[in-house]
Amino acid sequence: DGGITQSPKYLFRKEGQNVTLSCEQNLNHDAMYWYRQDPGQGLRLIYYSQIVNDFQKGDIAEGYSVSREKKESFPLTVTSAQKNPTAFYLCASSITGASGANVLTFGAGSRLTVL
Amino acid sequence: GQQVMQIPQYQHVQEGEDFTTYCNSSTTLSNIQWYKQRPGGHPVFLIQLVKSGEVKKQKRLTFQFGEAKKNSSLHITATQTTDVGTYFCAGSTSGTYKYIFGTGTRLKVLA
């Protein structure tokens, strides 16, 4: 079955540590995204990538970094510079529909807790 | 920057009552999408609207896109307990893959 796999599902880290969240898709989608969700809040865009070796900052990119070396993979690193990293992180991918609009397919998410 | 707001933030209804959530963008959108996130789950695509004034229906759900393409609504007729979750709109401007999500409306249905 095609889909998006995020790992790990749960992650705990100490303050000052970097952590990398994995996102892999086998949908052959061109675009990939990272969103952050805080309790009771909407999704905020961290980074997105339209093609391999290219990515753009979203609204809250500070303290995060990404890479897009392969079409299937879009890992997110939460650095120690991110002041409030505890959150639910969602990865998504999309393909351009006939109307030009992209439908986002989400992974199951990774819940990061900073101790 | 582009902002997308939704109201209400929360809504509790008795099973069988109707429910509506409204989405407003600070900028004109090329299209808008709606997603549903069940408690503990991830957002799942419901529908997309592209044309000004467009109305689409999915069983008990009715989606509208405003004439100015800056607002949208989702209406559920005769809610059921399976409708529980958070409903998000997501808008995109022309020529971009960037989707900005609304703040979401959390629906609780009381049996």
Task: Report on this structure.
- The complex is a heterodimer of chains A (115) and B (111).
- Chain A has 115 residues and is mainly beta.
- Chain A has strands at residues 4-7, 10-13, 19-25, 31-37, 43-51, 54-57, 64-66, 76-78, 87-96, 102-106, 110-114.
- In chain A, strands 2, 4, 5, 6, 9, 10 and 11 form a seven-stranded mixed sheet that branches. A four-stranded antiparallel sheet of chain A has the order 1-3-8-7, with no helix packed on it.
- With 111 residues, chain B is mostly beta strands.
- In chain B, strands 2, 4, 5, 9, 10 and 11 form a six-stranded mixed sheet that branches.
- In chain B, strand 9 (85-92) and strand 10 (99-101) form a beta hairpin.
- The relative contact order of chain B is 0.34.
- The model of chain B has no long low-confidence stretch (mean pLDDT 94).
- Chains A and B meet through strand 4, strand 5 and strand 10 of A and strand 4, strand 5, strand 9 and strand 10 of B.
Main sheet properties of chain B: 6 strands, mixed
Low-confidence stretches of chain A: none
Mean pLDDT reading of chain B: 94
Helix percentage of chain A: under 10%
Largest interface: A-B, 28 and 26 residues
Strand residue content of chain B: over 45%
Q: What is the strand tally of chain B? A: 11
Element pattern of chain A in H and E: EEEEEEEEEEE
The proportion of residues in beta strands of chain A is over 45%
Shape of chain A: globular
Unreliably modeled segments of chain B: none
Write a compact overview of the structure shown:
Chain A contains no helices and 11 strands.
Top keywords for this entry?
heterodimer; A: 115 residues; mainly beta; 7-stranded mixed sheet; 4-stranded antiparallel sheet; 11 strands; B: 111 residues; globular
Topology of helices and strands:
The complex is a heterodimer of chains A (115) and B (111).
Chain A lengths: L3 E4 L2 E4 L5 E7 L5 E7 L5 E9 L2 E4 L6 E3 L9 E3 L8 E10 L5 E5 L3 E5 L1
Parallel strand pairs in A: 2-11
Antiparallel strand pairs in A: 1-3, 3-8, 4-5, 4-9, 5-6, 7-8, 9-10, 9-11
Chain B lengths: L3 E4 L2 E5 L4 E7 L5 E7 L6 E6 L5 E4 L2 E5 L5 E6 L8 E8 L6 E3 L3 E6 L1
Parallel strand pairs in B: 2-11
Antiparallel strand pairs in B: 1-3, 3-8, 4-5, 4-9, 6-7, 7-8, 9-10, 9-11
